[in-house]
Amino acid sequence: MAPCIVCKTETTKYRCPKCMERYCSVTCCRAHKEGNIHPAFRDMAGDTDEVPESLLHELSASSEIRSMLGNPHLRAMLENLVNTDKPDLAMAAAMREPIFTELADTCLRIVDKENPNLEPEATLGGR
Predict the structure, then answer these.
(1) What is the structure's pLDDT at 117?
(2) Strand extents, DSSP E, 17-107
(3) HIT-type domain spans which residues (predicted)?
(4) Of 114, 15, 102, 103, which is closest to residue 55 (Cα–Cα)?
(5) Are 32 and 6 in contact, with CB atoms under 8 Å apart?
(6) Model-level pTM?
(7) Tens of pLDDT along the chain (127 residues)?
(8) How far apart are CA 118 and CA 116, in angstroms?
């Protein structure tokens, strides 16, 4: 686990939602927010891929997703994605796992109402 971005302590519990840097306390969170406006992240993210809150509620209410999240292997994979220092590598590994791609496909079907024929597997080279 990466050290706190502010005080460099090895025990970090939290991540900045804007840049994903780790910090250890409310004090360090405030210091990070005051000293860092996250320009690189803002440029990368853009404003076009936001999911409306109503669709996020549909995700949380989905019995299919709740059922999938009952799988301990999937939960461990998701926990690893949240806690890893190398999210790009962890995501690449997760996308090779059928249970993870099934969850991703289900989430996309719920949030991408404009594209009901969405087939993410086809975009991954026809696995």
Answers:
(1) 58
(2) 22-23
(3) 4-38
(4) 114
(5) yes
(6) 0.56
(7) 678 888 888 888 888 877 778 888 888 888 888 876 555 554 455 555 677 888 889 998 999 999 999 999 999 999 988 888 888 888 999 999 999 999 999 999 988 876 655 554 444 444 4
(8) 5
Tokens of 28: 């360090």
Residue linked to tokens 């990070």 = 32
Per the structure block, which two tokens stand in for 78? 């998701």
Strands 14-15 and 22-23: antiparallel
Q: Which residues of 43-62 are buried (b: 16+ CB within 10 A; e: fewer)?
A: eeeeeeeeeeeeeeebeeeb
pLDDT of residue 78: 93
Length of the chain: 127
| Amino acid 116: pLDDT | 58
**Measured torsion, CA atoms of residues 35, 80, 67, 114, in degrees rounded to the nearest 10:** 50
* Token pair 């809150």 in the structure block, residue: 53
Q: Are the C-beta atoms of 119 and 101 separated by less than 8 Å?
A: no
End-to-end C-alpha distance for the chain, whole angstroms? 32
